[in-house]
Amino acid sequence: MKSKIAVDSIALLSPLTGIGRYAYEISKRLKDSDEFELFFYYGFFSKKIFTSGGYAKIKSSVSKSSLLKRAAKKALVFYTKNFFKKEFDLYWQPNYIPDPVVRSKKCVVSVHDFSFILNPSWHPKERIEYFEKNFFKNIKRADRIITGSNYSKEEIKKFIGVKDDMIDVIYHGVDHSVYRPYEREVLKNFAKKLKLPKKFFLFVGSVEPRKNLSYLLKSYIDLPNGLKKEYKLLIVGFKGWENERIKALIDKERENIVYMGYLSDLELAFVYNLAFAFIYPSLYEGFGIPPLEAMACKTPVIVSNRASLPEVCSKAALYADVDKEEDLREKILDIVENEALREDLKKRGFKRAKEFSWDKSAKRHMEVFRRELS
Question: Per-residue confidence at 61, pLDDT binned at 50, 70, 90?
Answer without folding.
Answer: very low
